[in-house]
Specification:
With 393 residues, this protein is an alpha/beta fold. The protein has helices at residues 75-85, 102-118, 155-164, 183-190, 204-213, 234-241, 260-268, 319-330, 334-349; strands at residues 3-12, 17-26, 29-35, 44-47, 52-55, 57-62, 64-65, 68-69, 90-96, 126-133, 169-174, 194-197, 217-218, 246-249, 273-275, 288-292, 295-300, 303-306, 366-369, 375-380, 383-387.
Length: 393
């Protein structure tokens, strides 16, 4: 059996850290951890002196990376994305679609399912499922989603896509104010799919009512939704005020003012905050022009916009940079950083029995933070997927 032991490291657990410890992985599972004085011999060891070992991050909202997009609907594109994400410490993700013609969405989710069920993603980030973002959204808050393909909420159409996806659609971003009598939301709930309000122009009353009917998630909070106003709290106000709603956050310094996080953490608490990248194909690529769902996105100095230069169109922030930003802006401990980038996501998707934290019996999904804060190593189910030059030896 192959085994890897990370030694002399800070080991980040669910509610604390081991300052000078080891983490042992055998084949694809974590089998033990503890103080260095108890470190077992006879395994392939990597000296992580001065480094931090954290659970692999899970990005539940990412469209692409490395020049590829999930809407490309080909295995080579999915390989590229999965191999790119490990460089930022991401070991699991939801393949995220976007508003397109119905047949293109069906083609994409079918291809994603075939790829996921083929089974061999060794040494790559794991595709856990699918996040369907659009087309059931409000044109008034479309953002970079192409308006001509927006569709009213339709459970029959969703069921057709879910069948093509082999049941892998886990989250659906939609506009609840367009869901007549909340039939669409009720049917999603029956099917065990998370209904997320996003790209929505709902009023505070409409959003609050939708939460009462079963909405438990808000897609990229502050963006693609009616904002907070003292006479109209909007979707943002409804999401912040209800303790049952989990909120996605894109901490790139562009999608919202960092100081707003102080309000979010006070109102939601760490356990309801979910860091995402909303990454597009330009992630990990040089500045330039890129396709996003048929629209041209201009990437310049870390900012992604439509050609108007104003409308934000996704992000190129890495999950590790997002983690570091959150730590800086909120003064988070290491274990709190792990919660908002891994454990909360695993719990949302119902996979925390095998992912989301460094615990015995869970998948050996791990990343190592070098002394400069960058990712030095990523391990996916016990296989070294990325090793930075000059990293652990």
């Amino acid at each position: 059996m192959e085994s890897i032991c990370l030694t002399n490291a800070v080991i980040v657990l669910e509610d604390g850290v081991i300052e000078d410890g080891f983490l042992l992985m055998v084949e694809d599972k974590i089998v033990s951890y503890g103080m260095m004085e108890d470190c077992p011999a006879g395994h392939r060891q990597f000296d992580c002196t001065g480094r931090v070992v954290m659970p692999g991050m899970i990005d539940i909202h990412v469209h692409g990376a490395g020049g590829s997009d999930f809407m490309d609907a080909v295995p080579a594109a999915f390989d590229t994305i999965s191999q790119t994400l490990v460089k930022e410490g991401t070991t699991g993700y939801l393949a995220t679609t976007m508003t397109n013609p119905a047949n293109r969405i069906k083609e994409a989710v079918s291809a994603i399912a075939a790829y996921r069920l083929a089974g061999d993603q060794s040494g790559m980030a794991e595709m856990i499922g699918i996040h369907l973002e659009g087309p059931f959204i409000n044109p008034a808050q479309k953002g970079a989603q192409p308006e001509r393909h927006i569709h009213s909420p339709d459970i029959t159409l969703f069921d057709e896509w879910q069948e093509a996806a082999k049941g892998l659609i886990r989250i659906v971003t939609f506009a609840p104010e367009l869901d007549k009598d909340h039939v669409f939301l009720q049917e999603l709930t029956k099917r065990g799919v998370i209904g997320s309000m996003g790209h929505t122009d709902a009023t505070y009353e409409e959003a609050t009512y939708a939460i009462g009917e079963g909405v438990t998630h808000a897609t990229h909070l502050f963006n693609g939704m009616k904002g907070l106003h003292h006479r109209e709290p909007g979707v943002v106000g409804a999401a912040l005020l209800d303790e049952n709603v989990h909120v996605e956050l894109i901490p790139d310094g562009l999608h919202f003012h960092p100081d707003l996080l102080k309000m979010v953490v006070k109102m939601k608490g760490i356990d309801k905050m979910i860091v995402i990248s909303d990454g597009i194909r330009a992630k990990g690529m040089p500045d330039g022009e890129y396709d996003l769902g048929g629209s041209t996105v201009v990437v310049r100095k870390g900012k992604c916009t439509l050609q108007d230069g104003v409308s934000l169109a996704g992000s190129i922030v890495t999950m590790n940079k997002a983690r570091m930003n959150m730590a800086e802006w909120l003064g988070l401990t290491l274990w709190e950083q792990a919660r908002i980038t891994s454990l909360n996501q695993a719990k949302r998707l119902g996979v925390d029995n095998r992912k989301g934290s460094l615990a015995v019996g869970k998948d050996a999904d791990v990343f190592v933070v070098d002394e400069d804060g960058e990712v030095g190593m990523t391990i996916c189910k016990g296989i070294i997927a990325y090793l930075r030059d000059g990293g652990c030896e």
